[in-house]
Design brief:
mainly alpha, Serine Threonine Protein Phosphatase 5, Tetratricopeptide repeat, 91% helix
Amino acid sequence: MKQIILFSISFLSIFLINAQTIDELAAVRKGNSTYQQAEKVRAEAMELVEKGGEVNTRLANEKFKEAAKLYQEAEIAYRKGMAVTKNFPKANYNLANTLYRQEKYEDAANSYKYVAEQKENDKSLRAKAFHNYGNSLLKQEKYKESIDAYKNALKLYPNDKDTKYNLEYARRKLIQQQQEQQNKDNKDDKDNKDNQEQQQQQNQDNKENKDNQNKEQEKQQDKKQEQQDKQEQQQQRQQQQQDKRQLDALQQNERQTQKKVAEEEMKKSGKSKQEKDW
């Protein structure tokens, strides 16, 4: 009984694995078919663009939209087919192509890199993966990284003209990018210097304004103090005048009093003499 159960479990596991593999292969085949159809529709759209004209342009746009939808369906099929089993070299490569056609350049770069770095993969496939890995990086303006990718492609296929051309183009773009960055840095340095000078000038102006304000305040305070001094002097003069008038009045009263006393004394003296003489 135990042997029958173990055999049944083993048989069921093998069946599930095979079924899973069959489903994966079916999804990958569907992805391949849809991808090839998308490439065909895209090629037709490009031919219409080359012919030119309003009608052809309109038809081309419709075909580009149809191709974009097919690329998306192909991506879904590929991801379903490789949800468990990852190592389908050509399927991974085509998945990267569908991502590139959808302008998902970062995801495409990761998929191309995965195919290119699997050393057991076909040499030709790895070279194309490195080449397109460089293209994906180029689209992201990662020029230094794209140069390395193109060099790796040329190590596998040294005479590939397209890779050589793209390598030189990436080098020129890198030089241009570095020059633009240098110009930007110089401009930033100049702007920072100008801002510093402007700030220094503003600080100097603020200092001068503050000094002028302080001087104006001091002048106002001096003027106010001068007015207070004048008021105090005027009050002092008024007080002195008042004190003088009071003193004069007292002196006048005293003189009058003394005069009256003297007159009284004279009267008294006159009366005494008369009495004595009498």
